[in-house]
Amino acid sequence: MSLKPTYKQCHEFLGTPLDTIRGVGPRLVEKFAKMGVFTVEHALYTLPFRYEDRRRLTPIAQLKPDCKEIFVGEVLAASEKTTSRSRRKLFEVIVGDSSGSISLKWFHYRKTWIQKQYPLGRRGIFYGEVKRFGAIREIHHPDVDFLREGQDPQSLLESDPLSFGRILPVYPLTEGLTQKTIRKIWKQIVDRYAEYVVAPLPDEIRKRQNLMPLSDALRRVHFPSSDSSLKELEEGMSPARRTLVFDELFYLELGMALKRRGVLLEEGHAFKLDHIYTKPLAGMLPFRLTEAQRRVLGEIKRDMMSPHPMNRLLQGDVGSGKTVVALMAALVAIENRTQVAVVAPTEILAEQHFFQFQGWMKALGLGVVFLTGSTPTAQRREILQQLKNSTVDMVVGTHAVLQDDVEFAALGLGIIDEQHRFGVLQRACLRKKGKHPDLLVMTATPIPRTLALTVYGDLALSVIDQMPPGRQPVNTKVIVDQQRRQAYQTIRNELVEGRQAYIVYPLVEETEKSDLMAATEGAEFLQEKVFPDKRIGVLHGKMRPADKEAIMRCFKAGELDILVSTTVIEVGIDVPNATVMMIEHAERFGLAQLHQLRGRVGRGQHQSYCLLIRSHRCSEDGLRRLDVMEATTDGFKIAEADLEIRGPGEFLGTRQSGLPDFRVANLIRDGRILEQARQEAFSIANDPGFLTSDHYAELRQALKDRWGDRLELASLG
Ligand code: ADP
Ligand code: MG
């Protein structure tokens, strides 16, 4: 009787180094190391990135261009040639069967060797991608296996079942490795070790989700059975792959669920609603909250009233009205005699938040201070004092607020505006500044749901999915540089109606000047040549904060018609009377930035316009981005497109996101599986016995093995 190995033993087997595998010597070990493959487990999770269909032999006459085909043929002719145009040497072999013939070509070869390989009459099984040039079909650098004299092709197919008669895996390679080698070694590894890949996933989940055992899934992904659907395999939709993806995402979400639960179990502030400030604020607002704002505010208040800390993400498109929601939450905290910290990733953003909050806070008789890295020392000392002895209710600032010597008398609520920067660390930092304060994370950039669930998986999600009433979609047009007159005409028309316009230039950098019209030069040009009768102001990143503020105030008061600017207005500025956003060199901006910029208009009753000026030389991706902008104003659709164009790594920007690398899952493709995995994971994590019951011991161990300390799961012990 053989004993089934325990989960732990299995895990150890999988750590077996590769040099114990037959045929793997020091040379191969080195090559695999280059691919990041050191153990059997690494090899098992180095999956094919595509497949080749070598199941059936095709008669030569039926070989289709642009397809990878496999066929038997006999050498009819073989000779070295020179191409007529580039005078390059090549070796050509014509092979045929009873149905027809095809040309095989090599551009890199050793002549004596290749001539010996292809004597007239030799037969073989060939494999390669068929190309068509005019009426001629040919294959470059085909794979071949020769038949012995008189050998039946079928017997060869059967004698090398790894290369023929099946759907073949194609792996990512490093230099000096061939598909044949890796296939041979991977086959051994899969045959011998796949059985040790076990997932202590509860049976009911496996059944409900239609998952196969992990070891079977691995076997099938590496070496699909002949009756598999090639289409499913190529689209990454095979049941085997789904099993692997589910498994991977399940552990990620389980980790997130536990993190969330860990925070939820802590003791926090149980705030009471006594409306001392929220009610007067509601009375002062020149509008009614939208239904979405009220719903989200309800969710936030419910969290704040609970005795456990809030850990919530507030997501809403540009202009959806997050600020007022955050302000309401802040007032609840202040009513309960605690303090509020608002942290933004850049000085400009922090400043804009400060002005927005300060307006209302002052009206309510409450104090706010502003703290950044450039706050003068004396002033800083005073601010720290005020926060410490509770003479001020709110601080708005940058990461400077997170520094060690910034102490609060009683921090009740932290609000983090993360834009498109994701940092787990900042959240932890802020949390430490109070006794389990509530936390509200805001993102102005919509994140596709799949990413939100992974990056912010431990947060509860509130979405403002409705715009304030009366907003019309911004009319967006891409205009080629030479036709910019059109854009000026649109601006002129709007100014005549009493509206205002933004014109944005990419950068004020000396080095870029030769290339781009900088904002200041742009403004001079516009003033002299295009709008001599209009009032034009300039705003750029290098100006002193007071000067910036003065310009913004003028524009807001309608004392300027056109605000020429660098991207400093990307966020936060709010002038409903501005109806045109013209962006120079629009192809240079990322989608998120363009969306933010466009969000500066369309804030009032009037139809607004976004004019994207592009140069005639514009990259492929640049064009795609501009197309997306023209096609939709929906921030979530734009974010999805952005994710697709750039891929998750780029989209999130560097590794600081804290997002683990996925071995199998693809966030663009696997959103649905992620949702399912998340649901199952959260329901398990909410089982009160999860952390202690023996029933889950292996699952807990597996979770630790998967994510180690990356998820900071102290509770797992
Ligand atoms: P964002 O979500 O981009 O931070 P803001 O909070 O800056 O958006 O709000 C955008 C604009 O919409 C502001 O002028 C704000 O005063 C206004 N606003 C917010 N909520 C409403 C509402 N319910 N009705 C009308 N206007 C609103
Ligand atoms: Mg805002």
TrEMBL record:
It is an enzyme of class 5 (isomerase). It comes from Syntrophotalea carbinolica (strain DSM 2380 / NBRC 103641 / GraBd1) (Pelobacter carbinolicus). Gene3D superfamilies: Nucleic acid-binding proteins, P-loop containing nucleotide triphosphate hydrolases. GO terms for biological process: DNA recombination; DNA repair. Belongs to the helicase family. RecG subfamily. Plays a critical role in recombination and DNA repair. Helps process Holliday junction intermediates to mature products by catalyzing branch migration. Has replication fork regression activity, unwinds stalled or blocked replication forks to make a HJ that can be resolved. Has a DNA unwinding activity characteristic of a DNA helicase with 3'-5' polarity. PROSITE patterns: HELICASE_ATP_BIND_1, HELICASE_CTER. Its EC number is 5.6.2.4. The keyword ATP-binding applies. Keywords: ATP-binding, DNA damage, DNA recombination, DNA repair, DNA-binding, Helicase, Hydrolase, Isomerase, Nucleotide-binding. InterPro entries: ATP-dep_DNA_helicase_RecG, DEAD/DEAH_box_helicase_dom, Helicase_ATP-bd, Helicase_C-like, NA-bd_OB-fold, P-loop_NTPase, RecG/Mfd, RecG_dom3_C. It catalyses: Couples ATP hydrolysis with the unwinding of duplex DNA by translocating in the 3'-5' direction; ATP + H2O = ADP + phosphate + H(+). It comes from the Bacteria. Residues 483-649 form the Helicase C-terminal domain. This is ATP-dependent DNA helicase RecG. SMART domains: DEXDc, HELICc. Residues 303-464 form the Helicase ATP-binding domain. GO terms for molecular function: 3'-5' DNA helicase activity; ATP binding; ATP hydrolysis activity; DNA binding.
